[in-house]
Amino acid sequence: MEVPSSWDALRKQARKLEAQLDEQMNSYRRFVSVKFDAHSDLESGIDRLLKQLQQVNLQMQAWVSSGGSEMVSHTLTRHQEILQDLTQEFYRLRSSLRAKQEHASLLEDFREFDRSRVDLEAGRDSAENALLKEHASVSRSTGQMDTVISQAQATLGALVLQRSTFGGINSKLSNIGSRLPTVSHILSAIKRKKSMDTIILSLVASVCTFLIFIFWLTK
Description:
Largest sheet: none
Structural class: mainly alpha
Number of strands: 0
Strand content: under 5%
Low-confidence stretches: none
Helix content: over 70%
């Protein structure tokens, strides 16, 4: 910026800078009212113009101090007031913008925390539901296993009872056979039939045991 050589040149330079600042400040006011992010180019431009206007005011102050009239002093005061008003408003708007940015950042942090909390609770609920489902599945499997075992035990008990019954009948028939030779032949046939039944019953018991073992492995 050129250094003016007269009072009129200083006044002209001050008015030019004030007009530029007016335009820049209007844009900055609109920006602050609708935006949350900083406009570094606009802010740096206003800050640069304020410093230039302050430099011109200092030169005007030096001119007045060297013997300017009362009217010149009054004009200087007016330009100083304009500079002060523009500077204060710029700092106020910039502070307001910074406050909005901090508020938006805190709000976003809170939303992120809330999303994380919801995700954590959802994950915890999913884990609890998975455990409940697993527990229910184990309970059903245990119940089915108990049913199969009970059925196998009942079948085994029936086989033992039949064996005991056949043993008692065999003992009585043996006594009769020792007295009646004709009956001895019949007893032999019954024994063969009994042996075959025993084999069949043993096979049935083995198959039941095998099925119970396979069922246990598949669970």
